[in-house]
Amino acid sequence: MLGSQVLLCVPDGTLVCGTDLKEAPGVDAPGVDLADDDQVARLFEEHGPFSGVIHTAAYTAVDKAETEEALATRVNGEACAVLARACAKAQIPLVLVSTDFVFDGTQTRPYEPEDPVGPVSAYGRSKLAGERAALELHPAGARVVRTQWLYGPRGKHFAGTMLALARERDELRVVADQKGTPTSTLELAPALWAVLQDGEAGIYHAACEGEATWYEFAVATLELAGVEDVTVHPCTTAEYPTPARRPAYSVLDCSRLTELRGKSLAPWREALSTYLGTTTDQ
Ligand SMILES: NC(=O)c1ccc[n+]([C@@H]2O[C@H](COP(=O)([O-])OP(=O)(O)OC[C@H]3O[C@@H](n4cnc5c(N)ncnc54)[C@H](OP(=O)(O)O)[C@@H]3O)[C@@H](O)[C@H]2O)c1
Predict the structure, then answer these.
(1) How far is Cα 39 from Cα 234, in angstroms, rounded to an integer?
(2) Most distant CA pair in the chain, distance
(3) Separation of alpha carbons 96 and 140, rounded Å
(4) How many other C-beta atoms are found inside a 10 Å radius of the C-beta of residue 241?
(5) What is the pTM of this model?
(6) Cα 34 to ligand 1 centre (Å)
(7) Which residue's CA is the nearest one to ligand 1's atom 18?
(8) 146-172 pLDDT per residue, tens
(9) What is the CATH number that goes with domain 2-278?
(10) Which own/partner contact pairs does 277-282 have at CB distance under 8 Å and 24+ positions apart?
(11) pLDDT beyond 90 at 177
(12) Where in the chain are the domains?
């Protein structure tokens, strides 16, 4: 979802090399397992020299990670270590995308980059392992960008799921006691380029402006998409149990990124409206 959007907003004058896990026929992107040192070394040799790397690949099946933590840790932890070693050797910056799930969600004010972490899920632990590896192995060049609640023109996401369900049902129940910020990949992707080109090593938070519950996100999605004949009911996390625990509150303080770019990401409702205007997936 995010990687393809990053490739669709390449700054003028920049040449890019996108990768995929497996080479797809007819697509000009080398297949690379980013958790494999040799494959990444070959990528750098055959397609480099690079002036920087934006790492958006990940194991993102949050619930499945509870029973596949070793695999999640290999993909989310080890791949960051592999890329950090390669980027340190090449002396180039590495931007890697992380998550609000590194926090436990007990705070009541927006999380700042230096606030204590405490993941409550296997996915969160695996992403934290990646952050730590990159910052340790490439302290001069690693830029961790934590984001949350992503949706966008490609891939599977909450807004798309709500629109699909609304075609099948008259009523939906959505969790109303978890708070974060829906963030469009259309907003986030250019910000990753800015962090690569102008940022310094360290941790950034990057989400749209404002805050919402999943319930409010669902209601806004249907309203802005013009769906009128579906009722959304709020429910609690306890009523909708999932294998992985999620932080109850994970709004991110994005001041550092705002300072870097001179502007924040768009307010979440505005970004959602823009996205719904560009997608045919309604
Ligand atoms: N989605 C969200 O709400 C959200 C929230 C916070 C943070 N993030 C973070 O944002 C980033 C982008 O997320 P996304 O939703 O765009 O993810 P996504 O759509 O699931 O894409 C992840 C991609 O990584 C690939 N991949 C998995 N293992 C790999 C490996 N070993 N080597 C190379 N590629 C591999 C996957 O390939 P296959 O499809 O072939 O497996 C997939 O194409 C991730 O770092 C994620 O943790 C996402």
Answers:
(1) 47
(2) 57
(3) 14
(4) 8
(5) 0.96
(6) 12
(7) 1
(8) 999 999 998 899 999 999 999 999 999
(9) 3.40.50.720
(10) 278/153, 278/186, 279/153, 281/160, 281/163, 282/163, 282/225
(11) yes
(12) 2-278
